User: Which sequence fits this backbone?
């Protein structure tokens, strides 16, 4: 239901976007730029995950339990969505395109397959890399939550041993 009137009879928005097929030459021309950006994005995400992990190890990452739970849930949801996308698309991406049965058609089909599922630069690999980064972030957040719980429990025990009440 659209916001505003509340009648329940609103028509959903219709997209007028169109897609234009691209040629193998156009794809080949933009591939280096896309690969470079993917490497930069991967490096930045990996660096951020490493810094988060280091902060959790040093006890410098502090979140209250509710905030940590919400953040962990959001990261794990994103991680699971990436894995679901990878599972749904990997076989499709690996399916050879049928341009014909001649050497040029087979070469173009192989090139598209490399762009899709290539070991070092394919879209499927990028999804797995993103999954790994999100998994690392989730692990660091879980570690921080456990460290915080342990510190709170130790403080509570120390306070109680000193005759206070928590």
Assistant:
């Amino acid at each position: 239901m659209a916001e505003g009137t509340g009648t329940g009879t609103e028509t959903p928005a219709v997209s007028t976007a169109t897609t234009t097929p691209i040629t193998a030459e156009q794809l080949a021309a933009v591939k280096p730029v896309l690969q470079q950006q993917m490497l930069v994005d991967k490096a930045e995400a990996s660096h951020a995950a490493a810094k988060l992990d280091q902060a959790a190890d040093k006890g410098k990452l502090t979140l209250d339990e509710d905030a940590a739970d919400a953040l962990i849930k959001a990261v794990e949801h994103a991680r699971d969505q990436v894995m679901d996308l990878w599972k749904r698309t990997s076989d499709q991406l690996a399916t050879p395109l049928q341009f014909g049965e001649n050497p040029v058609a087979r070469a173009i089909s192989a090139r598209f397959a490399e762009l899709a599922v290539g070991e070092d630069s394919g879209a499927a690999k990028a999804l797995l890399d993103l999954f790994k980064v999100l998994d690392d972030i989730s692990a660091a957040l879980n570690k921080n939550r456990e460290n915080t719980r342990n510190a709170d429990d130790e403080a509570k025990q120390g306070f109680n041993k000193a005759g206070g009440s928590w």
